[in-house]
């Protein structure tokens, strides 16, 4: 860059000298070729400057939207975001997200299965691994290492725009919802029983009378 | 509709224009009387903080275009092109002309009602006057509307040009909602004439709007059996005077005759005395979950679970006070809030104030961190030994479950009242995402855990709180 700058400074100096003393202009070669060359040089340099605009974003202050009330978080929105990340990300980056999703569903499933079958968490984990907790094979495959997805899911999951993982999440959550719906029917009874048990412990302060 | 009025010829020495503007000044005077804050906003510049000016990159490359035009003109021997290039050079110079200065503005914000009821529409008028020496060719002002308020009419911003001494006014309408709402920083963006430089100035004009809802009634919740020694209306397992049968015992001298079991006397010849359940008053602390996790709603633009909790707590507060119980208020969250249990009219007013305006129950979550061990220790220290706890929480994570079980284990009987933020806004199953379903499943599991531990849970989603309480109390034995 240094020699170019020297040439530039020299050219400007010559320009000033010519402006001061017109006689010097006669010494310059104003032939067709030279003038055309100067013109082309100007065009090239101009295009170089102008192309600086390409790839540059206009900057301005982001003033936001103070008119809108602060948005509230929606339960489960974080989970949906993680699923989308897991599906769209590349193989390596998506792994953590996929693990997060799977472990959250698994945790909920273990609790639900343990409550529904009245068994320990370990037994519930075994049931998940064996796929015994649901009759939906896609859901069972999602939460188990030993079960593979049904052929239909594998084919559909390979199509562009479809994802076996997303399919699995949806199936597993739906299966879980069906599994827990059964427990809910007895929830009211639970409540009464629980409070009845507590009746013996009520009125602690009154006892000191 | 936004009214953007411009008082361009608003000089301070009296002429006709000034009289017109004076009419509005009267309004402002009235307003000033109300909040007792002098006649600022007339000439004194508002406190401001100007950021560094930066290039907007708007004119990048214009000199290149100029040079290219001149080059083409020279190469093709076309004087017209060279002249066109000279014009482009003019643009290049124009872009470098002038700097974006600070927005030296005197801001004045006027609110049509500083203490509105929830749902009221409040008109906010902002007046800005250029009190600097330089004209501002391109000025955008965006008002710092509090995050808890929604603008329902007109944008809270204006774009204009102001010469020194000139002013602009714009107004917008917000819908009031519970809480204390403080206006934040008003931001003014100034650009130079060509728009090549830009500078942000932040202006502080504090304005406060306090919205205190009337407490609803209808939260007549049956309390659990932990009571004080004073008489009230919570039936206990202690025999004595009351209305409901409790037990019979051997007659002792001095027992009132009307409580002698005459049937038994007739049957067996023995004297026995009827014991009735004593009814006593309770000390109740309403605990509201106000952690960031509790600020959830079924739709992003809906009221959060904290709002639902506060509304329900208000209803319960009124009902309990009316029943003669002593009621206190506390929050579980990063900010501290504690109204010790009390009774009486004064206490009712304090309770209403606390629920409406306490910063711990602000309409938007606090930025501070929540330390649950610290909170638990402080809360237990404050909680009277005979107090039972009504815990309002959406149960959006496991922390409230743990807290409720611990409090219950310490002997403060806990009832959990849970607004349900996982109900689907529309009934069609297609709109229910796996995340929402999973959140609902997890929440149901938490409720089961609580019920399994002997803690009463009332939940309400699309039903009203009183309806949920009524149906739950029917289910509960005492």
From TrEMBL, chain A:
Ranges annotated as spanning the membrane: 29-50
Keyword Transmembrane helix: yes
Location of the region described as Disordered in the Swiss-Prot/TrEMBL record: 180-209
Biased composition regions of type Basic and acidic residues, renumbered to the chain: 190-202
Listed InterPro entries: DUF7269
Keywords annotated in UniProt: Membrane, Transmembrane, Transmembrane helix
One Pfam match: DUF7269
Stated name of the protein: Uncharacterized protein
Species assigned in the record: Halorubrum cibi
Lineage of source species: Archaea, Methanobacteriati, Methanobacteriota, Stenosarchaea group, Halobacteria
From TrEMBL, chain B:
Lineage of the species this protein comes from: Archaea, Methanobacteriati, Methanobacteriota, Stenosarchaea group, Halobacteria
Protein's name according to its UniProt entry: Conserved repeat domain-containing protein
Domain DUF58: 248-360
Pfam families listed in its UniProt record: DUF58
PANTHER family: BLL2464 PROTEIN (PTHR33608)
Segments of this protein annotated with the region Disordered: 1-49
